[in-house]
Amino acid sequence: MGRARGSGAPGAGMPRTLSASEMVTPGSPGPPLTEHTEGEQAGQPFLDGAPSSASLDTLIQHLVPTADYYPEKAYIFTFLLSSRLFIKPQELLARVCRLCIEQQELDKPVLDKAQVRKFGPKLLQLLAEWTETFPRDFQEESTIGHVKDVVGRIAPCDEAYRRRMHQLLQALHQKLAALGQGPESLLGADKPISYRTKPPASIHRELLGVCSDPYTLAQQLTHVELERLRHIGPEEFVQAFVNKDPLASTKPCFSDKTKNLEAYVKWFNRLCYLVATEICMPAKKKRRAQVIEFFVDVARECFNIGNFNSLMAIVSGMNMSPVSRLKKTWAKVKTAKFFILEHQMDPTGNFCNYRTALRGAAHRSLTAHSSREKIVIPFFSLLIKDIYFLNEGCANRLPNGHINFEKFLELAKQVGEFITWKQVECPFEQDPSITHYLYTAPIFSEDGLYLASYESESPENHSEKERWKTLRSSILGKT
Q1: Burial of 445 (C-beta count, 10 Å sphere; 0-12/13-18/19+)
Q2: Which of 231, 389, 432, 446 could disulfide-link 182, Cβ–Cβ 3.0 to 4.6 Å?
Q3: pLDDT (tens digit, 9 = 90+) per residue, 222-234?
Q4: Model confidence at 37, in pLDDT bands (50, 70, 90)?
Protein backbone atom coordinates (compact mmCIF):
# COMPACT_ATOMS: atom_id res chain seq x y z
CA MET A 1 0.00 0.00 0.00
CA GLY A 2 2.81 2.40 0.83
CA ARG A 3 2.51 5.93 2.10
CA ALA A 4 -0.69 7.88 1.83
CA ARG A 5 -1.03 9.23 -1.67
CA GLY A 6 -0.73 12.94 -2.08
CA SER A 7 2.52 13.23 -0.11
CA GLY A 8 4.63 13.25 -3.26
CA ALA A 9 4.78 15.64 -6.18
CA PRO A 10 1.83 17.89 -6.90
CA GLY A 11 -0.70 16.23 -9.13
CA ALA A 12 0.11 12.68 -8.02
CA GLY A 13 -3.06 10.97 -6.81
CA MET A 14 -5.69 12.58 -4.66
CA PRO A 15 -5.06 15.21 -1.97
CA ARG A 16 -3.59 14.01 1.31
CA THR A 17 -6.36 15.84 3.12
CA LEU A 18 -9.10 18.14 2.02
CA SER A 19 -8.49 20.80 4.64
CA ALA A 20 -9.66 24.33 3.99
CA SER A 21 -6.09 25.64 3.90
CA GLU A 22 -5.23 23.34 1.00
CA MET A 23 -8.44 23.96 -0.89
CA VAL A 24 -8.10 27.75 -0.98
CA THR A 25 -4.54 27.74 -2.30
CA PRO A 26 -4.57 30.04 -5.34
CA GLY A 27 -4.68 27.97 -8.51
CA SER A 28 -4.16 28.58 -12.19
CA PRO A 29 -6.34 31.03 -14.08
CA GLY A 30 -9.97 29.93 -14.31
CA PRO A 31 -11.39 27.83 -17.14
CA PRO A 32 -12.68 29.46 -20.31
CA LEU A 33 -15.91 31.33 -19.70
CA THR A 34 -18.98 29.66 -21.11
CA GLU A 35 -22.39 31.10 -21.70
CA HIS A 36 -24.24 31.08 -18.40
CA THR A 37 -27.50 29.26 -18.09
CA GLU A 38 -30.56 31.11 -16.93
CA GLY A 39 -30.17 32.31 -13.36
CA GLU A 40 -26.42 31.74 -13.31
CA GLN A 41 -24.34 34.86 -12.82
CA ALA A 42 -20.73 35.34 -13.77
CA GLY A 43 -20.02 37.26 -10.59
CA GLN A 44 -21.20 34.57 -8.16
CA PRO A 45 -19.00 33.94 -5.08
CA PHE A 46 -16.47 31.17 -5.41
CA LEU A 47 -15.82 28.61 -2.70
CA ASP A 48 -12.45 26.84 -2.53
CA GLY A 49 -11.70 27.47 -6.16
CA ALA A 50 -15.16 26.43 -7.36
CA PRO A 51 -18.63 27.96 -7.43
CA SER A 52 -20.74 27.23 -4.34
CA SER A 53 -23.48 26.30 -6.79
CA ALA A 54 -23.62 26.04 -10.55
CA SER A 55 -25.14 24.14 -13.42
CA LEU A 56 -23.75 20.74 -14.31
CA ASP A 57 -22.36 22.15 -17.58
CA THR A 58 -20.43 24.85 -15.71
CA LEU A 59 -19.01 22.36 -13.23
CA ILE A 60 -17.89 20.07 -16.07
CA GLN A 61 -16.26 23.03 -17.80
CA HIS A 62 -14.40 23.80 -14.57
CA LEU A 63 -12.95 20.27 -14.66
CA VAL A 64 -11.56 20.55 -18.20
CA PRO A 65 -7.90 21.67 -18.40
CA THR A 66 -6.57 24.05 -21.04
CA ALA A 67 -3.11 25.21 -22.06
CA ASP A 68 -3.20 27.82 -19.29
CA TYR A 69 -5.54 26.31 -16.71
CA TYR A 70 -5.63 23.25 -14.46
CA PRO A 71 -8.34 22.65 -11.82
CA GLU A 72 -7.39 22.48 -8.16
CA LYS A 73 -6.88 18.97 -6.81
CA ALA A 74 -9.63 19.41 -4.23
CA TYR A 75 -12.05 20.39 -6.97
CA ILE A 76 -11.15 17.36 -9.08
CA PHE A 77 -11.75 14.96 -6.21
CA THR A 78 -14.95 16.67 -5.07
CA PHE A 79 -16.53 16.83 -8.51
CA LEU A 80 -15.53 13.31 -9.58
CA LEU A 81 -16.90 12.00 -6.29
CA SER A 82 -20.24 13.81 -6.44
CA SER A 83 -20.88 14.05 -10.18
CA ARG A 84 -22.07 10.42 -10.34
CA LEU A 85 -25.28 11.60 -8.67
CA PHE A 86 -26.05 13.51 -11.87
CA ILE A 87 -24.15 11.83 -14.71
CA LYS A 88 -22.55 8.43 -15.22
CA PRO A 89 -18.72 8.53 -15.04
CA GLN A 90 -18.49 7.08 -18.56
CA GLU A 91 -20.68 9.88 -19.92
CA LEU A 92 -18.71 12.48 -17.97
CA LEU A 93 -15.43 11.26 -19.41
CA ALA A 94 -16.90 11.36 -22.92
CA ARG A 95 -18.00 14.99 -22.40
CA VAL A 96 -14.63 15.99 -20.95
CA CYS A 97 -12.78 14.44 -23.88
CA ARG A 98 -15.16 16.09 -26.36
CA LEU A 99 -14.62 19.50 -24.75
CA CYS A 100 -10.86 19.01 -24.87
CA ILE A 101 -11.03 18.20 -28.57
CA GLU A 102 -13.27 21.19 -29.34
CA GLN A 103 -11.42 23.77 -27.24
CA GLN A 104 -7.93 22.72 -28.35
CA GLU A 105 -9.10 22.14 -31.97
CA LEU A 106 -7.67 18.63 -31.91
CA ASP A 107 -9.90 17.56 -34.78
CA LYS A 108 -8.09 19.82 -37.25
CA PRO A 109 -5.59 18.28 -39.70
CA VAL A 110 -2.84 20.66 -38.57
CA LEU A 111 -2.33 21.19 -34.83
CA ASP A 112 -0.79 24.14 -33.02
CA LYS A 113 2.12 22.16 -31.56
CA ALA A 114 3.21 24.86 -29.12
CA GLN A 115 -0.32 25.05 -27.74
CA VAL A 116 -0.71 21.26 -27.55
CA ARG A 117 2.59 20.91 -25.70
CA LYS A 118 1.25 23.22 -23.02
CA PHE A 119 -2.09 21.41 -22.88
CA GLY A 120 -0.90 17.79 -23.19
CA PRO A 121 0.75 17.38 -19.76
CA LYS A 122 -2.33 18.85 -18.06
CA LEU A 123 -4.67 16.43 -19.84
CA LEU A 124 -2.48 13.48 -18.86
CA GLN A 125 -2.32 14.74 -15.28
CA LEU A 126 -6.12 14.86 -15.07
CA LEU A 127 -6.41 11.33 -16.49
CA ALA A 128 -3.77 10.11 -14.03
CA GLU A 129 -5.62 11.56 -11.04
CA TRP A 130 -8.94 10.19 -12.26
CA THR A 131 -7.68 6.65 -12.89
CA GLU A 132 -5.73 6.60 -9.64
CA THR A 133 -8.55 7.73 -7.36
CA PHE A 134 -11.59 6.28 -9.17
CA PRO A 135 -10.25 3.30 -11.16
CA ARG A 136 -13.64 1.58 -11.26
CA ASP A 137 -14.91 4.40 -13.47
CA PHE A 138 -12.76 2.85 -16.22
CA GLN A 139 -14.01 -0.74 -16.09
CA GLU A 140 -15.97 -0.41 -19.33
CA GLU A 141 -13.98 -0.72 -22.55
CA SER A 142 -15.69 2.39 -23.99
CA THR A 143 -14.04 4.60 -21.36
CA ILE A 144 -10.60 3.33 -22.37
CA GLY A 145 -11.54 4.14 -25.96
CA HIS A 146 -12.18 7.78 -25.05
CA VAL A 147 -8.78 8.00 -23.34
CA LYS A 148 -6.96 6.47 -26.32
CA ASP A 149 -8.80 8.73 -28.76
CA VAL A 150 -8.04 12.05 -27.08
CA VAL A 151 -4.41 11.16 -26.26
CA GLY A 152 -3.95 9.79 -29.76
CA ARG A 153 -4.86 13.22 -31.13
CA ILE A 154 -2.09 14.99 -29.20
CA ALA A 155 0.53 12.23 -29.60
CA PRO A 156 1.85 13.52 -32.99
CA CYS A 157 3.09 16.63 -31.16
CA ASP A 158 5.12 14.56 -28.67
CA GLU A 159 5.46 10.76 -28.68
CA ALA A 160 6.07 10.89 -24.93
CA TYR A 161 2.31 11.42 -24.56
CA ARG A 162 1.56 8.00 -26.02
CA ARG A 163 4.13 6.31 -23.78
CA ARG A 164 2.66 8.08 -20.76
CA MET A 165 -0.81 6.90 -21.74
CA HIS A 166 0.37 3.28 -21.98
CA GLN A 167 1.97 3.55 -18.53
CA LEU A 168 -1.23 5.05 -17.16
CA LEU A 169 -3.40 2.29 -18.65
CA GLN A 170 -1.02 -0.41 -17.45
CA ALA A 171 -1.20 0.94 -13.88
CA LEU A 172 -4.99 1.13 -14.20
CA HIS A 173 -5.18 -2.49 -15.34
CA GLN A 174 -3.08 -3.63 -12.39
CA LYS A 175 -5.21 -1.64 -9.96
CA LEU A 176 -8.46 -3.05 -11.37
CA ALA A 177 -7.03 -6.58 -11.19
CA ALA A 178 -6.12 -6.05 -7.53
CA LEU A 179 -9.55 -4.61 -6.74
CA GLY A 180 -11.13 -7.62 -8.42
CA GLN A 181 -9.59 -9.80 -5.73
CA GLY A 182 -11.49 -8.04 -2.96
CA PRO A 183 -11.94 -9.61 0.47
CA GLU A 184 -15.74 -9.76 0.26
CA SER A 185 -15.51 -13.40 -0.88
CA LEU A 186 -13.92 -14.39 2.43
CA LEU A 187 -17.22 -13.88 4.21
CA GLY A 188 -19.43 -14.96 1.34
CA ALA A 189 -20.21 -18.39 2.75
CA ASP A 190 -20.14 -17.30 6.37
CA LYS A 191 -23.40 -18.00 8.17
CA PRO A 192 -24.06 -18.19 11.91
CA ILE A 193 -24.74 -21.72 13.10
CA SER A 194 -27.34 -22.92 15.55
CA TYR A 195 -26.05 -24.06 18.89
CA ARG A 196 -24.72 -27.63 18.90
CA THR A 197 -26.00 -28.68 15.53
CA LYS A 198 -22.74 -30.64 15.41
CA PRO A 199 -20.78 -32.40 18.14
CA PRO A 200 -19.16 -29.71 20.37
CA ALA A 201 -15.61 -30.78 19.50
CA SER A 202 -16.19 -30.10 15.81
CA ILE A 203 -17.95 -26.79 16.38
CA HIS A 204 -15.30 -24.74 17.98
CA ARG A 205 -11.69 -24.20 18.80
CA GLU A 206 -11.08 -21.42 21.28
CA LEU A 207 -9.49 -18.20 20.09
CA LEU A 208 -7.30 -18.20 23.20
CA GLY A 209 -5.81 -21.45 21.94
CA VAL A 210 -4.78 -19.67 18.73
CA CYS A 211 -3.71 -16.34 20.22
CA SER A 212 -3.41 -15.63 23.93
CA ASP A 213 -1.67 -12.23 23.67
CA PRO A 214 -4.09 -9.26 23.53
CA TYR A 215 -1.58 -6.98 21.83
CA THR A 216 -0.93 -9.53 19.07
CA LEU A 217 -4.65 -10.02 18.44
CA ALA A 218 -5.21 -6.26 18.31
CA GLN A 219 -2.47 -6.03 15.69
CA GLN A 220 -4.00 -8.85 13.63
CA LEU A 221 -7.43 -7.22 13.83
CA THR A 222 -5.82 -4.03 12.53
CA HIS A 223 -4.38 -6.05 9.64
CA VAL A 224 -7.84 -7.33 8.76
CA GLU A 225 -9.41 -3.88 9.05
CA LEU A 226 -6.87 -2.16 6.80
CA GLU A 227 -7.00 -4.97 4.24
CA ARG A 228 -10.76 -4.67 3.97
CA LEU A 229 -10.72 -0.85 3.95
CA ARG A 230 -8.19 -0.82 1.12
CA HIS A 231 -10.80 -2.19 -1.28
CA ILE A 232 -13.47 0.43 -0.55
CA GLY A 233 -13.53 3.04 -3.29
CA PRO A 234 -14.54 6.61 -2.42
CA GLU A 235 -17.39 6.39 -4.92
CA GLU A 236 -19.08 3.69 -2.83
CA PHE A 237 -19.95 6.28 -0.17
CA VAL A 238 -21.95 8.24 -2.74
CA GLN A 239 -23.43 5.23 -4.52
CA ALA A 240 -24.75 3.88 -1.22
CA PHE A 241 -27.15 6.80 -1.09
CA VAL A 242 -27.96 7.45 -4.74
CA ASN A 243 -31.51 8.74 -4.98
CA LYS A 244 -33.54 9.85 -7.93
CA ASP A 245 -32.53 13.24 -9.19
CA PRO A 246 -35.89 15.07 -9.40
CA LEU A 247 -34.73 17.09 -12.42
CA ALA A 248 -33.24 14.12 -14.25
CA SER A 249 -34.65 10.73 -15.24
CA THR A 250 -36.99 8.72 -13.06
CA LYS A 251 -34.31 6.18 -12.30
CA PRO A 252 -31.08 6.59 -10.30
CA CYS A 253 -27.85 6.72 -12.26
CA PHE A 254 -26.51 3.60 -10.62
CA SER A 255 -27.59 0.32 -9.20
CA ASP A 256 -25.87 -0.51 -5.92
CA LYS A 257 -22.13 -0.74 -6.48
CA THR A 258 -21.16 -0.96 -2.85
CA LYS A 259 -20.06 -4.56 -2.37
CA ASN A 260 -16.82 -3.69 -0.55
CA LEU A 261 -18.57 -1.25 1.76
CA GLU A 262 -21.23 -3.86 2.52
CA ALA A 263 -18.61 -6.56 3.05
CA TYR A 264 -16.91 -4.31 5.59
CA VAL A 265 -20.15 -3.89 7.54
CA LYS A 266 -20.55 -7.70 7.48
CA TRP A 267 -17.05 -8.02 8.92
CA PHE A 268 -18.00 -5.74 11.83
CA ASN A 269 -21.09 -7.85 12.53
CA ARG A 270 -19.06 -11.05 12.33
CA LEU A 271 -16.53 -9.75 14.85
CA CYS A 272 -19.38 -8.81 17.25
CA TYR A 273 -20.80 -12.33 17.06
CA LEU A 274 -17.37 -13.96 17.24
CA VAL A 275 -16.65 -12.15 20.51
CA ALA A 276 -20.02 -13.18 21.95
CA THR A 277 -19.53 -16.78 20.78
CA GLU A 278 -16.08 -17.02 22.35
CA ILE A 279 -17.47 -15.74 25.68
CA CYS A 280 -20.60 -17.92 25.77
CA MET A 281 -18.91 -21.14 24.60
CA PRO A 282 -16.82 -22.23 27.66
CA ALA A 283 -18.71 -24.41 30.17
CA LYS A 284 -16.94 -22.99 33.25
CA LYS A 285 -17.56 -19.45 34.41
CA LYS A 286 -13.91 -18.96 35.38
CA ARG A 287 -12.92 -19.60 31.76
CA ARG A 288 -15.68 -17.31 30.49
CA ALA A 289 -14.43 -14.55 32.81
CA GLN A 290 -10.90 -15.06 31.44
CA VAL A 291 -12.19 -14.68 27.88
CA ILE A 292 -14.03 -11.45 28.79
CA GLU A 293 -10.91 -9.98 30.41
CA PHE A 294 -8.87 -11.03 27.40
CA PHE A 295 -11.20 -9.18 25.04
CA VAL A 296 -11.17 -6.12 27.29
CA ASP A 297 -7.38 -6.05 26.96
CA VAL A 298 -7.63 -6.55 23.18
CA ALA A 299 -10.11 -3.68 22.94
CA ARG A 300 -7.84 -1.42 24.99
CA GLU A 301 -4.93 -2.19 22.65
CA CYS A 302 -7.16 -1.44 19.65
CA PHE A 303 -7.92 1.95 21.21
CA ASN A 304 -4.21 2.66 21.69
CA ILE A 305 -3.48 1.67 18.08
CA GLY A 306 -6.31 3.83 16.72
CA ASN A 307 -8.43 0.89 15.56
CA PHE A 308 -11.82 2.16 16.68
CA ASN A 309 -13.84 -0.16 14.44
CA SER A 310 -12.54 -3.34 16.07
CA LEU A 311 -12.84 -1.65 19.46
CA MET A 312 -16.54 -0.93 18.91
CA ALA A 313 -17.18 -4.44 17.56
CA ILE A 314 -15.63 -6.00 20.68
CA VAL A 315 -17.53 -3.70 23.05
CA SER A 316 -20.75 -4.39 21.11
CA GLY A 317 -20.16 -8.14 21.30
CA MET A 318 -19.65 -7.98 25.05
CA ASN A 319 -22.85 -5.90 25.40
CA MET A 320 -25.03 -8.40 23.53
CA SER A 321 -27.81 -9.70 25.78
CA PRO A 322 -26.62 -13.35 25.85
CA VAL A 323 -23.29 -12.07 27.24
CA SER A 324 -24.48 -9.24 29.48
CA ARG A 325 -26.95 -11.56 31.29
CA LEU A 326 -24.10 -13.80 32.56
CA LYS A 327 -24.10 -12.17 36.01
CA LYS A 328 -22.12 -14.91 37.77
CA THR A 329 -19.48 -14.70 35.08
CA TRP A 330 -19.24 -10.90 35.21
CA ALA A 331 -18.93 -11.10 39.00
CA LYS A 332 -15.52 -12.71 38.46
CA VAL A 333 -14.38 -10.04 35.98
CA LYS A 334 -12.34 -6.97 36.89
CA THR A 335 -14.71 -4.57 35.18
CA ALA A 336 -12.97 -1.21 35.72
CA LYS A 337 -11.08 -1.37 32.40
CA PHE A 338 -14.24 -2.42 30.56
CA PHE A 339 -16.21 0.50 31.94
CA ILE A 340 -13.50 2.89 30.72
CA LEU A 341 -13.83 1.45 27.20
CA GLU A 342 -17.61 1.65 27.38
CA HIS A 343 -17.30 5.29 28.37
CA GLN A 344 -15.10 6.00 25.36
CA MET A 345 -17.66 4.44 22.99
CA ASP A 346 -20.75 5.79 24.79
CA PRO A 347 -23.35 6.92 22.20
CA THR A 348 -24.46 9.78 24.46
CA GLY A 349 -24.15 13.21 22.85
CA ASN A 350 -23.83 11.69 19.38
CA PHE A 351 -20.75 9.71 20.47
CA CYS A 352 -19.08 12.82 21.87
CA ASN A 353 -16.33 10.89 23.71
CA TYR A 354 -15.49 8.76 20.68
CA ARG A 355 -15.39 11.79 18.38
CA THR A 356 -12.93 13.49 20.75
CA ALA A 357 -10.71 10.38 20.71
CA LEU A 358 -10.99 10.17 16.90
CA ARG A 359 -9.87 13.80 16.52
CA GLY A 360 -6.89 13.03 18.75
CA ALA A 361 -5.94 10.02 16.64
CA ALA A 362 -6.40 12.03 13.43
CA HIS A 363 -4.11 14.78 14.75
CA ARG A 364 -1.51 12.18 15.74
CA SER A 365 -1.76 10.71 12.23
CA LEU A 366 -1.09 14.07 10.57
CA THR A 367 2.05 14.70 12.61
CA ALA A 368 3.29 11.08 12.67
CA HIS A 369 6.67 9.93 11.45
CA SER A 370 5.86 6.20 11.40
CA SER A 371 3.07 4.02 10.02
CA ARG A 372 2.34 2.88 13.56
CA GLU A 373 1.32 6.42 14.57
CA LYS A 374 -0.57 7.06 11.33
CA ILE A 375 -3.24 4.41 11.95
CA VAL A 376 -6.79 5.75 12.18
CA ILE A 377 -9.59 3.23 11.64
CA PRO A 378 -12.88 4.98 12.40
CA PHE A 379 -16.03 3.37 13.75
CA PHE A 380 -17.35 2.67 10.28
CA SER A 381 -21.10 2.49 10.90
CA LEU A 382 -21.02 5.95 12.47
CA LEU A 383 -19.02 7.33 9.54
CA ILE A 384 -21.66 5.96 7.17
CA LYS A 385 -24.38 7.47 9.36
CA ASP A 386 -22.66 10.88 9.33
CA ILE A 387 -22.37 10.81 5.53
CA TYR A 388 -25.97 9.66 5.22
CA PHE A 389 -27.29 12.54 7.31
CA LEU A 390 -25.10 15.01 5.44
CA ASN A 391 -26.65 13.73 2.22
CA GLU A 392 -30.19 13.78 3.61
CA GLY A 393 -29.85 17.13 5.36
CA CYS A 394 -28.92 19.16 2.29
CA ALA A 395 -30.48 19.19 -1.15
CA ASN A 396 -28.40 18.09 -4.12
CA ARG A 397 -29.88 20.91 -6.15
CA LEU A 398 -31.00 24.40 -5.26
CA PRO A 399 -34.44 25.77 -6.25
CA ASN A 400 -32.97 27.31 -9.42
CA GLY A 401 -31.75 23.89 -10.55
CA HIS A 402 -28.08 24.47 -9.80
CA ILE A 403 -26.04 21.73 -8.15
CA ASN A 404 -25.33 22.50 -4.49
CA PHE A 405 -21.56 22.22 -4.74
CA GLU A 406 -21.00 23.56 -1.24
CA LYS A 407 -22.65 20.40 0.11
CA PHE A 408 -20.36 18.19 -1.93
CA LEU A 409 -17.23 19.98 -0.71
CA GLU A 410 -18.20 18.92 2.83
CA LEU A 411 -18.94 15.39 1.63
CA ALA A 412 -15.55 15.23 -0.10
CA LYS A 413 -13.83 16.46 3.06
CA GLN A 414 -15.24 13.56 5.07
CA VAL A 415 -14.64 10.92 2.41
CA GLY A 416 -11.20 12.30 1.55
CA GLU A 417 -10.08 12.06 5.17
CA PHE A 418 -11.21 8.44 5.31
CA ILE A 419 -9.44 7.61 2.03
CA THR A 420 -6.22 9.02 3.49
CA TRP A 421 -6.56 6.83 6.59
CA LYS A 422 -7.22 3.64 4.63
CA GLN A 423 -4.00 4.06 2.64
CA VAL A 424 -1.73 3.75 5.67
CA GLU A 425 0.57 0.77 5.44
CA CYS A 426 0.00 -1.71 8.27
CA PRO A 427 3.28 -1.86 10.24
CA PHE A 428 2.51 -5.15 12.03
CA GLU A 429 3.69 -8.53 10.82
CA GLN A 430 0.77 -10.65 9.75
CA ASP A 431 0.07 -14.01 11.41
CA PRO A 432 -1.96 -16.04 8.87
CA SER A 433 -3.10 -18.59 11.47
CA ILE A 434 -4.77 -15.85 13.54
CA THR A 435 -6.36 -13.98 10.63
CA HIS A 436 -7.60 -17.28 9.20
CA TYR A 437 -9.29 -18.03 12.52
CA LEU A 438 -10.89 -14.58 12.62
CA TYR A 439 -12.35 -15.16 9.16
CA THR A 440 -13.39 -18.81 9.44
CA ALA A 441 -14.17 -19.73 13.08
CA PRO A 442 -17.86 -20.71 13.35
CA ILE A 443 -20.08 -18.19 15.09
CA PHE A 444 -23.44 -18.76 16.73
CA SER A 445 -26.66 -17.18 15.57
CA GLU A 446 -28.48 -15.00 18.09
CA ASP A 447 -30.63 -17.97 19.13
CA GLY A 448 -27.53 -20.11 19.41
CA LEU A 449 -25.91 -17.52 21.67
CA TYR A 450 -28.95 -17.47 23.95
CA LEU A 451 -28.95 -21.26 24.20
CA ALA A 452 -25.25 -21.30 25.08
CA SER A 453 -25.84 -18.51 27.60
CA TYR A 454 -28.78 -20.31 29.24
CA GLU A 455 -26.80 -23.53 29.49
CA SER A 456 -23.92 -21.65 31.11
CA GLU A 457 -26.14 -19.78 33.56
CA SER A 458 -29.73 -20.96 33.97
CA PRO A 459 -32.65 -18.69 33.07
CA GLU A 460 -33.56 -16.42 35.97
CA ASN A 461 -37.09 -15.28 35.22
CA HIS A 462 -40.24 -16.47 33.50
CA SER A 463 -39.43 -14.70 30.24
CA GLU A 464 -35.99 -16.32 30.00
CA LYS A 465 -37.40 -19.74 30.91
CA GLU A 466 -40.03 -19.50 28.19
CA ARG A 467 -37.46 -18.42 25.64
CA TRP A 468 -35.13 -21.26 26.63
CA LYS A 469 -37.95 -23.75 26.29
CA THR A 470 -38.87 -22.44 22.85
CA LEU A 471 -35.26 -22.43 21.65
CA ARG A 472 -34.58 -25.95 22.88
CA SER A 473 -37.70 -27.13 21.12
CA SER A 474 -36.97 -25.42 17.80
CA ILE A 475 -33.19 -25.80 17.57
CA LEU A 476 -32.41 -28.91 19.59
CA GLY A 477 -35.57 -30.78 18.77
CA LYS A 478 -36.38 -31.32 22.44
CA THR A 479 -39.84 -31.19 23.98
Answers
A1: middle
A2: 231
A3: 999 999 999 999 9
A4: very low
